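Structure tokens please, single chain.
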Amino acid sequence: MHQPAANGSPARRRLRVVLAQPRGFCAGVERAIEIVERALEKYGPPIYVRHEIVHNRHVVERLRAKGARFVDELDEIPPGSVTIFSAHGVSRAVEQSAENRTLPVIDATCPLVSKVHSEGQRYAAQGREIILIGHAGHPEIEGTMGRIDGKVHLISKAEEVGNLRVSDPTKLAFITQTTLSVDDTRAVIDALKERFPGIVGPDTKDICYATQNRQRAVRELASEVDVMLVVGAANSSNSNRLREIAAEQRVPSYLIADADALDARWLEGVSSIGITAGASAPEDLVQRLIERLRQLADVDLQMSPGITENVRFRMPAELAEMSA
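Here you go.
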């Protein structure tokens, strides 16, 4: 029960709101969005993008308003139209299809995803079967599996390791989806190494820095707040994982697309809230959420200590000469 203020109206309650650091856009997402914007500026609309450039409806709608057209398959693209591959990467078959249709392609694949492709190809060239740790149906997984010659086994949980059937247990390698962190994959990798002692794989430092940083920030922040809000899309793998990590700390945690999805009932009896955002969620969505909270309470806004990211990836050669 709130005490009345001096003027007789109920006093507004105070709410401590702590922002995770880092949160939101990673360098790969920033690069992908900038590629679409530069392409629109250089070639003029429409520009065609295969699949969502990143997994966020707000980002997609803003680019659509500027003249980007998002398609599921290349046969929806008129001949000769400038085409962009999304940050998640594509298979060789998709690349070949674009070539067959003489589509001028700009590749917005995240460089860290491309690195996973290269690692998988290098291991396959050594005659190794590949075990890919990731989620079936995710665009990144489809692209990665479609770029590696030879046998690729897809698993997501340590429990699946026991069911693997491989040709030669001494000739194996593992690679991982970039939106999984060291913590996500540790149990699977440990199980693989226990069953197949000769298996090789990339160093943990090769795992996507942005995924790791955001998950660590959420894990630390969740321990000091009553509720955790994650701004991100329902189809965003990394956003879902951020919510799960907070929930694992026994903190009520909610994944919301934007401020409109906030349910005021989540705040009942709450004095502190943590906020983060998935790697494909723009910062203005976070700021609008804070404004929504300010309508409901007196907000004491704080920033958690954390890593400041200054990673930038180079633009593709076709767009490199243009200013940001």
